[in-house]
C-alpha cells in the first residue's frame, strides 16, 4: 500500500532519473573544474608578477584568490568522485528508504555542497532526489551540520566563508615563490603585521584598564559622561555668544531670554488686573492691551533714548489657562 501511495504521489525513487542527473552533474563538474583551473592559473601568474616587481603586499592579497579557486577545485574533485560512487552503488539504496552507512558521507556531502554552490543546478536536483528519498530531516541535518551528519570535514573546510589566515597565505606565497625561483623576504610582512596588531591590542587594553580604574561603578561613569556633555554644551553656548558680540550684535541670548520672561510676566500681571476690574465694574471687553515699557527700558536705558509706549491687542483666547479660568469665574 505504501509503495502504491508513493507511486501515485510521485514520491517513488526512479533509478533512471537519478543516473541521468548524476551523469549531467559529472559533466557539469568537468566544465566547472576547467573554469576554476583557468582562474587559479591566472591568479598564480599575477602573484608571480607582483613578486617579480617586489610588490609583496599586492602579491599577498592576490594569494587569497588563489586559495579560493584552489579550494573550489578540490571540492569539485571530491564531488565528482561521490557521483561516480553513488551511480555504482545505486542498488544499495534503490529499494531502501534509509541511507546506507557506507554511502552516508557521499549523500550528505552532496546535499551540503548544494547549498554552497549556486551555479550548479544538477546538484540542486540531486539534493531534491535525496530529500524525497530519505526525508527532510535527513537533508536538514546535513545542511545544518548537526551531530553525526556525515559531511566530509575537508569539504566543510574548503567551502567555509572565512578569510584565509595569514599563515595559510604565507604558505601558498612561499610555494609559488619556490616554484618560480623567486627570493622572498620571509620575515618582513608577517612580523610587521603581527607586531603592529599586538601593539594596538596592548594599547587598547591599557586604555580600557585606565578608564575602568577611574570610575567606581556604572553610575559614576554615567555622571562623568553627563558632566562632560554639559561642559561641551556650555562651551558651545559661550562660543556662540562671543561670535555674536564680535560681530557687533548688541543683543545676546541672555538678554533676549530675560526680555521674553519679563514680557510674559507683564502680560499675566495686566491680564489679572483687567480681569479684576471687569469683575468689579461689570464690564467685559473682548480685547485687552498691555504695556512693555518695563522691558524696553532695560535695552534702551544705556543710550539715553526716550522709551516709547508699545500697545498690542490681546485676545482672550491668548490668555494663559489660569487667567481664562479666573476671568470666567468673575463673569
UniProtKB/TrEMBL annotation:
Biased composition (Basic and acidic residues): 198-212, 290-309
Positions with biased composition (Polar residues): 248-261
Family matches, as InterPro entries: Ist1 (IPR005061), IST1-like (IPR042277)
Comp. bias (Low complexity): 188-197, 269-289
Annotated spans, Disordered: 188-212, 242-317
Entries under Pfam families matching the protein: Ist1
Source taxon at top rank: Eukaryota
Similarity field: Belongs to the IST1 family.
Protein name, as recorded: Regulator of Vps4 activity in the MVB pathway protein
Native source organism of the sequence: Salvia divinorum
Lineage, broadest ranks: Eukaryota, Viridiplantae, Streptophyta, Embryophyta, Tracheophyta
